[in-house]
Amino acid sequence: MTHDPAAHDEPAAAAPHDAQAERLVRDVTFYSQGTPCAGVLRLPPTHAPGQRHPAVVLCAGMSLTKEVWLPDHAARFNAAGFVTLNFDYRGFGASAGAPRRRLDPEEQVTDTRNALTFLESCDAVDADRLALYGVSLGASVATAVAGRDERPKAMVAVAGPMDLGRVWGAFPTFAGFRAKVDAAHRRFVATGEVSYVNVPRLLSGDPATAALLKAEGPRYPTWEQDVTFESLRALFAFRPEADAATIAPTAALWIAPENDDLIARFELGSVHAAARAPKKLVVLEGAEHVDVYKVEGAFERVMRETLAWYAEHV
User: CB-based contacts of 77: which residues, under 8 Å, 6+ apart?
Assistant: First the structure.
């Protein structure tokens, strides 16, 4: 192989610029209680300048960042004509906030409400046609937001707990575990000391979900699979079912995998019973918790139910 000195005199060819992709997918920042939150705003492929579309805020599950799994869901909403916003809660991923990965669902509710406010400011969004979508703990957050904020026209919550104290309290060793969390919280308040707990280990009661987390983690450099140990105290206190009676006028759809080893089907049935119409509960026969993310059959069923619900109510 010969070397051509003249090659250095020629400018390198520029990488092709995909202006269409740049126009439809934008990195954005909004502020939640003054803290910068990083997001990705995606526009429908049919978007033209001056158009306004309905929009969906996607609420991620425990420890997930905006790059993990839910962009596949967002793509289906984009194809149906929706603007979507995937974002990192405060303290997670590319968003600011300290301590890092402090898991406080009430703060995530606030972040999500601020995400709705950000969408109201976007030129491509019809601010009168907002919706929510959440999976796992994100379903809990979406439910609480729907009970406290009248702006979303529709909410879809998939495979999420509705009373975290009830869910965790069902484990026979919970009392001892709770005592350790309370002690960690006292140290955090007195000294600022922060310790972390591994999320796959926390969710080991559902081996399929824990295995998926471990297998998929290396694919996403921004996804650190641990949360602050003391903040589990805030997790145990989170009870979105208490907001069920005030969800209307938001139209609420809950979707429960039949064979969910992580979240008992009772959770979604209970919140559905407490809510006012318009409401609906769908059970995914034969599905497990992880199926709503990765198994084509369950994923497709979730998308069909969700898009039909949005078409009716947004």
Answer: 56, 84, 133, 306, 307, 310
- How many residues in total does the chain contain? 314
Check residues 1 and 11 and name the one with the higher pLDDT: 11
Dihedral sign for Cα atoms in the order 305, 308, 313, 314: positive
Sole residue written with tokens 């937001």: 145
Residue 7 lies in a domain: no
User: What is the C-alpha separation between 270 and 146, in angstroms, rounded?
Assistant: 16
- Extract the tokens encoding 257: 């995998």
Nearest to 240 by CA among 166, 162, 169: 162
Query: What confidence tier does 265 reach under pLDDT thresholds 50, 70, 90?
Result: confident
Q: Which of 133, 84, 144 is nearest to 108 (CA)?
A: 144
| Cα 147 versus chain centre, distance | 17
Copy the structure tokens of residue 245. Answer: 């009676």
Query: pLDDT class for 296, splitting at 50, 70, 90?
Result: confident
Name the DSSP class of 102: -
Residue 3, pLDDT > 90, answer no
pLDDT for 21 equals 59
Structure tokens at 183: 């002690």
Q: Can you read off the two tokens belonging to residue 284?
A: 């995914």
Quick check: is 80 in a domain? yes
* Number of folded domains that form the chain: 1
| H or E element, residue 37 | strand 35-42
Contact predicate 40/85, CB 8 Å: yes
Q: Residue 47 belongs to a domain with what CATH number?
A: 3.40.50.1820
Please state, in angstroms and rounded to a whole number, the distance separating the CA atoms of residues 20 and 232: 43
Structural domain boundaries, residue 113? 24-164+239-313
Helix (H, G, I), strand (E, B) or coil at 255: strand
Answer whether residue 137 is part of any domain.
yes
244: in domain: yes
